[in-house]
Amino acid sequence: MISLYTDSSPNGFKITIALEELELPYVVNHVHIEKGENLLPEFLQLNPHGRIPVLSDSETNTTIFESAAILLYLADKTNKLLPSEHNARWQAIQWLIFHASSVGPIIGQRVNFEIFDEGKNKEATERYKKLTERAFSTMDSHLANNLYFGGKEYSIADIANFGWTHIARIINFDFDHYKNLSEWHNRIAARSAVQRGILIPEPATGP
Ligand SMILES: N[C@@H](CCC(=O)N[C@@H](CS)C(=O)NCC(=O)O)C(=O)O
């Protein structure tokens, strides 16, 4: 049985979406970040970095953190959600890594400076806004010629990037001016598994 430790956040939704897509049975453990439950000793045993999501699979005796690694684990376990064709597979892995290094951390910092810190640090606010635009623009260019990040096939790269564009929409980090990105987002958002995944453990309400 799979146990997922998660909260209502971009990184958490990626995994609930993937589990819903794969129709795998799983138990949800709601880790309330706002109450500091992610820093309790029992949670730090699962992820010493104190962050959700964490997935434990009793079938393989595996516990794993970092959302991109969890998505790869699920794709590997099921042989689904990653293209089998060589180039498409590596395209998907490339955009999965892109999301982990150039989308999540950048939007995360933008949230911090623009929303939590109310834009008091003008230089940092501007910098992360610019970097978010650059990431969106890069994604938009790729999606001009590709239905999905891995090409023709929906994959964990789409799920990972959607985790962030879903939150970007909620907190008004607008990307409607990127037509291809916007259409891709709407395509992913229309999937029934995605619609279920973003409600678990609860819908996001913004920061
Ligand atoms: N790179 C990690 C980031 C995980 C992460 O930052 N999770 C946030 C929620 S979206 C968290 O647990 N934050 C708790 C904290 O910052 O104390 C991943 O992709 O899983």
Number of helices: 8
The set of bound ligands, ions and cofactors reads: glutathione
**CATH C-level label of the largest domain:** Mainly Alpha
CA distance, first residue to last residue: 32 Å
Question: Spans with pLDDT under 50 lasting ≥5 residues?
Answer: none
Mean pLDDT: 97
Query: What is the number of independent domains?
Result: 2
In what range is the share of β-strand residues? 5-15%
Number of strands: 4
Radius of gyration: 17 Å
Spatial ordering of strands, largest sheet: 2-1-3-4
What does this structure look like?
The protein is an alpha+beta fold and 207 residues long. The chain has two domains: 2-80, 3-Layer(aba) Sandwich (Glutaredoxin), CATH 3.40.30; 86-191, Glutathione S-transferase Yfyf (Class Pi), Chain A, domain 2. 56% of the residues lie in helices and 9% in strands. It has eight helices and four strands. It has helices at 10-22, 41-44, 67-78, 86-116, 122-144, 156-170, 179-189, 192-197, and strands at residues 2-6, 26-30, 54-57, 62-65. Strands 2-1-3-4 form a four-stranded mixed beta sheet, covered by helices on one side. Strand 3 (54-57) and strand 4 (62-65) form a beta hairpin. Helix 4 packs antiparallel against helix 5 and helix 4 (86-116) packs parallel to helix 6. The longest helix has 31 residues, at 86-116. The protein starts with a strand and ends in a 10-residue tail after the last helix. Bound molecules: glutathione (GSH). Glutathione binds next to helix 1 and helix 3. InterPro entries: Glutathione-S-Trfase_C-like (IPR010987), Glutathione-S-Trfase_C_sf (IPR036282), Glutathione_S-Trfase (IPR040079), Glutathione_S-Trfase_N (IPR004045), GST_C (IPR004046), Thioredoxin-like_sf (IPR036249). Residues 85-207 form the GST C-terminal domain. Residues 1-82 form the GST N-terminal domain. It comes from Xenorhabdus stockiae. This is Thiol:disulfide oxidoreductase.
